Amino acid sequence: MELWQLPATRLAEGIRTREFSAVEVAESCLGRIAGVNPVLNALVDVRPEEVLADARRADAAVAGGAGTGPLHGVPVSTKINTPQRGRLMSHGLAALAGATAKEDDASVTALRRAGAVLVGRSNSPAFSVRWFSTNDAHGRTLNPWSAAHTPGGSSGGAASSVAAGMTPVAQGNDIGGSIRYPAGCCGVVGVRPTVGLVSNWMSPADSGVEGPLTFQAWSVQGPIAGNVADARTALRAMAGPDLRDPFGVPALPGPAAATGPVRVSLVRDVGLAKPHPAVGDALDTAARWLADAGYEVEEIELPPLAEASRLWSLLLFEDMRPMLPGMREMGDEGLRVHLGYAYEYAAELWGERPSLETYIQGWARRATLITRLQETLGRDRILLTPVSAEPPFEQDADILDPARGRGLVAAQWPMTCLPVLGFPGVAVPVGVADGLPVGVQLVGGRFMEDLLLDAAQAIEDRAPRLVPPVSP
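^ thats the sequence. predicted structure below, dont judge the formating
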């Protein structure tokens, strides 16, 4: 087995014990990137000499007896919308194709502190607002399972690179499924943490403008990884108190622990989009595996999830409305068409131009939903939901026609309800259907990530190992 095929935890252990060097790991991953990235176009701005220099420093630290972090010497990618000092930060925009960041954001700083070797920037759609990863600046990222289907978005390059073995871990961010959906499309693990667990602070020198309230309150940074153990390690490495983040926690909570036997409530359908048979099969399989692992499993209806998804289209889209002229001017044609169809879907729910009163009432209703769902979940219940009501979408399905574009927003209800609520979610693969990965999402109360990752591990322990064909 080549080094690029090893998980992050195994790589960190091998580097720490000097079984192999960080340079050898970097060379193996760079070789893999050279072999498959020209096909997949998942990573941009890869600088091999800088990567090898960082790996040599990691080896020197081990040789000198310095303490090592949980990702010491492990190759990790970062996303083109996340500031990394001196590296490409284009947001997928042709006008910013050569722009670079002045400082690291908090999540990148945390990865460096954990010892990660940052190997490249992962591709995303323009402004990171589509569930597809293509843009005029860097081109289209492919899913290593099928060129005809999306790798997900907006962290599609991150998920594609992990699934193809370019890096064992990738950083992503999520305000509407942008970590969890690409993980589901590519057959890997994605974690959307509780808001505040991982700092979302970004240098004012790179953020340019102050983001609207939904961006501040809903967007999170988190890991995508090849397995649950690596996702858990990366999440712990990224988490940390940061008083610069207005929603950051002042101290890390202790490990989540249930007060009794953990119950799993399966939520199959909330009335917004009928689940595809392959999605239903994956839910049934995951439920059976969890029951086999000792979980108490039941199927329930949970209408507040549908209400939260509808609120996403109200609150986020109204916050974005003043930004639309600039987004349409700087973005590509795919972005413009997607925005048009997405706003048509929102208009069907809330009217063409929702009033300020409707917007204010939406925020008030959000607080009620959070309280009710937190009471439902408590400390001993998690939810099992689809990742999406459909398997991975065909490329550019969101811009094919208005009905299909609106239908995709509805199908993504498991992705859009969580940002509104601020709860954590984990996407974990279950298997393959018709040549495409299919997975499930686990949802818990705030700061219950460990409970979710334990359940995800139970699923992974029973699932087949997924190996994509990579060359479509």
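DSSP finds 17 helices and 13 strands in the chain.
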